């Protein structure tokens, strides 16, 4: 992993994860890099807006959550984003995708994204799958 990972913590150093959001934006994480959590804490209104946009986009079309997550995984592979690949593998599994479907999505990127990005994504996905 390129970044240290966070556990549940509050953006307000004096607040605990059980306190109300009024004291500060509370970020509950299991797998998020510290740099991402720090960004969300530094810009809480941007983070809230981004979360709202993501929810709206997720319900704007006919794709079910499982299919949408597999599509997002394909985009993460193409962009060669380790964090996005790992995140979308976890979220695809949570949405009901099978490991073989995740592997197939990564394989499908071969002719579009190339061997290096597929091999990297394959490794990142296998790391997540091995820890599930």
Identify the notable features of this structure and list them briefly.
132 residues; single chain; mainly alpha; AhpD-like; 3% strand; two-stranded antiparallel sheet
Structural class: mainly alpha
Provide the low-confidence segments as ranges.
13-29
Name of the CATH architecture of the largest domain: Up-down Bundle
Name the helix and strand elements from N-terminus to C-terminus, one letter apiece: EEHHHHHHH
CATH topology category name of the largest domain: AhpD-like
Radius of gyration: 16 Å
CATH class of the largest domain: Mainly Alpha
Share of β-strand residues: under 5%
How many distinct domains? 2
Taking the alpha carbons of the first and last residues, their distance comes to 17 Å
Distinct helical segment count: 7
Largest sheet: 2 strands, antiparallel
Q: Which quaternary structure do these chains form?
A: single chain
Q: What is the strand tally?
A: 2
Helix content: 55-70%
Going by CATH, the homologous superfamily of the largest domain would be AhpD-like
Overall pLDDT, averaged? Answer: 84
Dominant shape: globular
Output the strand order for the largest sheet: 1-2
């Amino acid at each position: 992993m390129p970044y240290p990972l966070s556990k549940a913590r509050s953006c307000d150093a004096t607040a605990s994860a059980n306190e109300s959001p009024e004291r500060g934006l509370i970020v509950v994480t299991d797998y998020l890099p510290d740099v991402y959590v720090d960004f969300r804490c530094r810009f809480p209104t941007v983070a809230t807006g981004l979360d709202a946009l993501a929810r709206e986009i997720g319900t704007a079309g006919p794709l079910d959550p499982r299919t949408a997550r597999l599509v997002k995984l394909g985009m993460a592979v193409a962009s060669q984003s380790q964090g996005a690949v790992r995140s979308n593998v976890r979220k695809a599994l949570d949405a009901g995708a099978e490991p073989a479907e995740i592997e197939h999505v990564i394989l499908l990127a071969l002719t579009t994204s190339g061997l290096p990005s597929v091999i990297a994504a394959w490794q990142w996905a296998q790391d997540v799958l091995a820890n599930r």
